[in-house]
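General statements about sequence and structure are easier to judge against a single worked case. Part of our work consisted of pairing the sequence of a single chain with a tokenised description of its backbone. The amino acid sequence and the backbone structure tokens for this protein are reproduced below.

***
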Amino acid sequence: MDFYEAVEKRRTVREFQSKPVEEEKLLRVLAAGLKAPSHNHLREWEFILIKDFEQRKKVVDLGVMAKNFGEKEVEEATKPMAEWEKPAYLAALPVQRRMLLSSPELLIVCFRMRKPLKECKSLYDLNNFASVWACIENILLAMAAEGLYGVTFIPHETMPLKKMLCIPDDYEVAVLIPIGYPQEYSVKQRPLSLQEKMHCNKW
């Protein structure tokens, strides 16, 4: 697939077919992640594929998801949103647990963090954090090129997850990515043009 075609086709998907993901495709996707630019060329990223379903249930149940998110919390969260944002947000809430449990593959992307986030004092301290997102973007574009889709899910709490998965103390969980072949997906993104975002010489 042409690069620009992959960029155009990439989208967020939360509902998947039961069709398994071919191993060779998955390996190509992960290899593409490792081609991303990284801080000091170190590529301090690690990938965990959760293959065992019982293990996957534990990952989801450890508080990775926002639990006890009732009507009051939904109302508060959507108050500041524009009208076009609310349908996409509300459509995502009921399926988040299901997408993490039902996707053919579940990928956890980890990165080395040389100091805890709360101790970071400057943008420079966040170089490794920025680098891992370049890796993640490569993964998402490679998925689109392979006809695979998913979504980035940032955990609310990582310490229990790190303990269960034996992730070293100096590594952090960046994101969970459910991966698979998409079902039909009707929620549309806000239309956006380059002219809205591009500035010359000053804002």
Notes: Strands lie at 45-49, 105-112, 149-150, 171-180.
